[in-house]
Structures are given as C-alpha cells and as structure tokens.
Write a structure and sequence with these properties.
This protein is mostly helical. The chain is built from eight helices and three strands, in the order H-H-H-E-H-H-E-E-H-H-H. The protein has a three-stranded antiparallel sheet. The protein is globular, with a radius of gyration of 19 Å.
C-alpha cells in the first residue's frame, strides 16, 4: 500500500478513515448496481428492508429506526418514490404525516435485490477472519460514542468538562 498520511495520524484520523471507507463502498456499490442493470442507490437497501419488515412507515419512524436525520430520510424516500419503488399516502389519523410502503415494482424486484445484498454480505464477511469481532467492536464503539461523543471526550481531556 502506498504512503497514506491519514493512516499516520492514528486515532486522530479515525473519522476520515471511516468516511473514506464508506465513500469507497458506496461508490463501488453504485458501479456494481449500474453494471448489473439495477436502477437503485447503495443506501436504498435500508428502506427496502425496513418496509419489507414493517410494511408502512413515516419519515420520522424511518429516521428513528436508522438513527438518520429527518432530511436525509426525506431525500432518500423522495428519490425512491420518484424511481417508482415507494408509494406514499397520508396518515388517516394525522394528515400531516406521510406513510411509505413498497410499490409493486419494489416487491417484484426485491428477490433480485436481496440476492445481490446477500452476495455482498458474503463478500464483505470474507474481508474478516473467522474469529474477528469487528461488528461487536463497532457496536461497542457506537454505544460508547452515543454515551459520550467526540466533543465531550475532547473537552474532558482538555479539562473543560
């Protein structure tokens, strides 16, 4: 591997390294979908799988389940609806709330998408050794970060609790 200044930074470069890896996976996923002739975006699998499980959800419910911001979910479901994968309807109890369901197009394409996602899962698993606890480590990191974020930890180290 060629010289990488960010790697040299150790923990200081952690966020940049995670972002770089995420961006690389999204870019590669986008290329893969295009090559396979699938007209979806890499992060849409989240919405497909959530709606497969829960059938009908609002933007607020989706955002809460994914721990995503409301605006990012609005953007995602808007693109999916425009592509014909989602239907929206107004909530009968609260007309301000829009509810999303999978469209017929989504349900027809879901088996193929799931086949691709399963192959992707298997491919990613092979990046790790059998005894690797990466997902457990990642979950522990997320839990610890939710309890005390970067700002709090840095200010604590500076003595500015």
């Amino acid at each position: 591997m060629k010289y990488d200044f960010v790697n040299e930074l150790g923990y200081l470069g952690l966020a940049v390294r995670l972002k770089r890896l995420s961006d690389a996976m999204v870019h590669s996923g986008r290329q893969m979908y295009k090559e396979l002739g699938l007209d979806i975006e890499p992060n849409w699998f989240l919405i497909f799988l959530l709606l497969k499980k829960y059938e009908k959800l609002s933007v607020t419910e989706i955002a809460a389940k994914l721990h995503f911001s409301h605006p990012s979910v609005i953007t995602m479901v808007g693109k999916m609806e425009k592509a014909g994968y989602l239907h929206s309807s107004l909530d009968k109890l609260d007309s301000r709330k829009k509810l999303f369901t999978l469209s017929l197009k989504a349900e027809e394409n879901l088996p193929r998408f799931e086949e691709v996602w399963q192959a992707g899962t298997e491919g990613v698993k092979k990046l790790f050794s059998e005894d690797n606890n990466f997902l457990n480590t990642l979950e522990a990191l997320e839990v610890q970060y939710s309890q005390k974020d970067f700002k709090e930890r840095t200010l604590n180290e500076l003595g500015n609790e």
